[in-house]
């Protein structure tokens, strides 16, 4: 569906002596937690109805490559790779940048319908795969990030990003994309490359600020070594190969749903009425995120029509930068998120007060994070429990596992390279039953919800439940 023009390698700019410096960074326990997860893939769609092949090749792509080169100079280690060489005695993988390392940039053209691909309607998940590059991963080496720039003649262009989860969390990837976009836009407006990034886009690269008194990095590394999951190399405990979930199947479909601010307010009112406990409600964490997550999870479980005893696992992903003791800079670049799974059965979710039940579970988990130290001995079993749940789901397919990718706080629609803000931002690597959240493009305080489900019938069922549930609120 996409004709590839070239696969280029973009290296950090040579305009500074820093680009010739070899650098390495350790993986923290936050990084190791995500070491074997599938790369996170994103698509940024930009409408440009006058975009010709000539302008694309002579102006747009060179501008993007040039600004990417300068962005990499600020984020130097991430032009390198994750490595764990057999001939060295390194106890764990690390990030290594050496001079002339760079990132892969694929340049392509497609005559598919840009507006279909960037729309909200139900469509096959596999349709997005042609516009996101693969991330090379071997036993001893893994690329950190790769890009694809695709022209849709007289419609627009897309930038596809594939990032290794052991290097970037969502906040870091978004920060990098915005830094790249900032440099690109400034170079067009002022006809020169900015030497300094704004403070909020300048990465803090010091990994020593993340303390690990309980040796969680090696505990998590051992958890992955012992995991019995598809794709992992059971004969080589040092392998960097990734877990291959069953999630990406030919019939899976995706769609985007919207919750406006009024919808969220009415859902919150419904939760409050179902709980009917004023004192408890006052202590709850009923944010827009919690209310939206609870409603989407309820719709997913209803659409799947599970047995009452089916296990349901839903995960709270927490940004820990401000929760560490002492807190670390908001611009810390790397992983600083942790997943906190919640286990329950389908029966209480499917009950009359299922929405309030889920909201209560989410609130309690988040409130617990506010009270406890993030780096605690209790985290020793965090990854092991999640891997066991994945092993069960992988072997028997009984559990319903739901996670949330992205965050409305990332403000992805502010990623403007100089040709306007994106028409659509999509996390194309979502697995079956998972969702993404982003702020509404129009800035009305609502959310965009990206959904992937197993097949068209299941998505139609979800759509009906979602729409009808909101109608009942009015």
TrEMBL record:
The keyword Cytoplasm does not apply. Its EC number is 2.3.1.153. GO terms for molecular function: anthocyanin 5-(6'''-hydroxycinnamoyltransferase) activity. Keywords: Acyltransferase, Transferase. It holds the Pfam family Transferase. It is an enzyme of class 2 (transferase). This is Anthocyanin 5-aromatic acyltransferase, putative. It comes from Ricinus communis (Castor bean). The lineage of its organism: Eukaryota, Viridiplantae, Streptophyta, Embryophyta, Tracheophyta.
